[in-house]
Specification:
Number of helices: 15
Mean pLDDT: 92
Radius of gyration: 25 Å
Low-confidence stretches: 1-5, 215-225
Distance between the termini: 33 Å
Helix content: 25-40%
Structural class: alpha+beta
Shape: globular
Strand content: 15-25%
């Protein structure tokens, strides 16, 4: 009998390689390079023996689909001309130096059946995070140029071909990917891998320099069970409601914006509250408001599958707006599905339905507000009206939330400003980031959802490390658009510990407290 797994169980896992993975890794590299040139089990075990923390795998539904190997090396050796066999010790990783100040990228392989899921991008991010955690100078390696052999006659030399790719006049399957990931060209390595006929044996000598070495302020770290990135890129979709004819049309629109956010290397993308009410425009029959919401809840399995698939496929964490969902007892809750890029799915319910939601749609509130642990730290969700109750944000912040996401839906400017002003207050009093995402446009014929007023934004605390006016990004009201902002998590640590004001530290616990009832 097949064991039922929880929706919260990750489908995709990036982790450190283990010795038990060696047979699968040998099979994977043989699949990529042929049995003759794949890594032997001895090589793979040796790599883990020399530098276990530098070997990573990506596992999808229990199968290893990606692998990368690294080791530490001194700067003189890393930046000098070399071949792959010389610098890697014949693939054994035996030239690893525990005190080396550069990370050498020895290998990255992705199973061909799983390309398009940004497996390589995840592995590159793991390398960068390891490099910054170890405070190394950067990452260096020799990168293939598989388009060289086919285009040598046109460009005349390997140098000219590489320059054309750097200038954006030519796309190379591998080198263009490296440049997109912020690697710089140091030069060419001749006879790097003589058997690489597509690259004519050449490799591009590439380096990524650790940006955190330029500025490492002395500050208390943010407490976390895992190392956090220095900067988190968030995207907020200001989504235009429009009539559609099918669920597939809705999925196409949502995937379009997810793809855009992923192309800009966002870690999170946020959609508005009640985004799925657009699906009611498919129906031709006139329904009462309560009947409409129950009809909408029938799409719940499709909605969850859609956003979960997009999160994994595009390697991005999705705050999927909200979707009215019927509960086991028959109640309707306004639910935000948070789909992480590891394949796990989390539900967060709106705690405070508005009078309109209660009276027109018969929506009832949830009863818990827990943070969600992501690869970018703990996050919290406050759905629209919830942002107007300071206890919610404080409860999430006390659990460790660094970023609060606020999917909202407001019909007129006055309603929007209530959410905006309260969210700005939550950012200041809790010294955290707050990301708002709202609807715009109109949906004639959909009960209680006729008009929309929205101005999405990304808000910060009000102190010196942050954006002027406490606004990292703002949109033009009532047009469809996407906002982006890079949010530095260390700035939160700095503000909470040594800001001009320290709201969290200065609370008077001797005078007051907020206590949530256990559920």
């Amino acid at each position: 009998m097949t064991k039922k797994t929880s929706e919260n169980t990750p489908k995709l896992l990036l982790r450190q390689a283990q010795l038990s993975d060696v047979p699968q890794l040998a099979e994977l590299t043989a699949r990529i390079y042929t049995a003759e040139w794949g890594h032997s089990q001895e090589m793979l075990r040796s790599q883990q023996t020399h530098f276990p923390e530098g070997q990573f795998v990506v596992e999808y539904e229990g199968r290893i689909v990606g692998y990368c190997a690294t080791f530490r090396i001194d700067e003189e050796t890393a930046l000098a001309p070399h071949t792959w066999s010389q610098i890697t010790g014949g693939g054994m990783g035996s030239r690893h130096k525990p005190d080396g100040n550069w990370l050498y990228g020895m290998e990255v392989v992705v199973h061909p059946d799983y390309r398009g899921m940004r497996i390589g991008q995840r592995l590159y991010h793991a390398r960068k995070r390891l490099c910054t955690d170890l405070k190394l100078r950067g990452i260096v390696f020799g990168g293939r140029i598989p388009g060289l052999a086919k285009n040598l006659q046109r460009y005349g030399s390997a140098e000219n071909y590489v320059q054309a790719v750097v200038d954006g006049k030519r796309r190379d399957l591998t080198l263009s990917f490296q440049l997109h990931n912020d690697f710089e060209v140091l030069g060419l390595l001749r006879a790097y891998v003589p058997s690489d006929h597509e690259s004519l044996g050449y490799a591009v000598h590439l380096a990524w320099r650790n940006p955190r070495l330029l500025d490492q302020p002395d500050m208390p770290p943010i407490s976390s069970q895992r190392n956090l990135p220095d900067s988190v890129r968030v995207a907020s979709v200001q989504y235009q409601q429009r009539k559609i004819k099918s669920f597939e049309e809705f999925a196409t629109q949502v995937e379009y914006f997810t793809d855009i956010a992923a192309d800009y290397s966002a870690d999170f993308v946020t959609f508005p509250e009640l985004i799925t009410l657009q699906l009611l425009s498919i129906e031709n029959t006139e329904l009462s408001p309560v009947e409409s919401i129950r009809k909408l809840s029938q799409y719940t399995p499709q909605v969850k599958e859609l956003f979960s698939r997009l999160a994994v496929h595009y390697n991005i964490n999705i705050i999927a707006g909200t979707h009215p969902t019927e509960q086991a007892n028959g109640d309707i809750h306004n639910v935000c599905y948070v789909c992480l890029r590891d394949g796990s799915l989390h539900e967060r319910e709106k705690l405070h339905p508005t009078p309109s939601e209660r009276n027109v749609w018969n929506i009832t509130g949830g009863d818990s507000a827990a943070t969600i642990l992501t690869d970018c730290g703990p996050i919290g969700v406050m759905i629209c009206y919830d942002s107007e109750f300071p206890e919610v944000a404080r409860h999430l912040t006390d659990q460790g939330a660094l970023i609060l996401f606020v999917p909202f839906c407001t019909d007129v400017r006055e309603g929007y400003l209530r959410v905006r002003y309260c969210s700005q207050a939550r950012a200041i009093e809790n010294q955290c980031y707050v990301v708002l995402s709202g609807n715009v446009g109109n949906l004639p014929g959909v009960n209680n959802f006729d008009i929309q007023y929205g101005q999405s934004c990304i808000l910060t605390p009000s102190d010196f490390p942050f954006a002027r006016d406490g606004i990292a990004a703002d949109s033009t009201p009532n047009i469809e658009t996407v906002l982006f902002a890079d949010l530095r998590l260390e700035s939160i640590a700095r503000a909470r510990n040594a800001g001009a004001v320290t709201n969290l530290k200065d609370r008077r616990f001797d005078l007051y407290e907020t206590r949530w009832r256990p559920r």
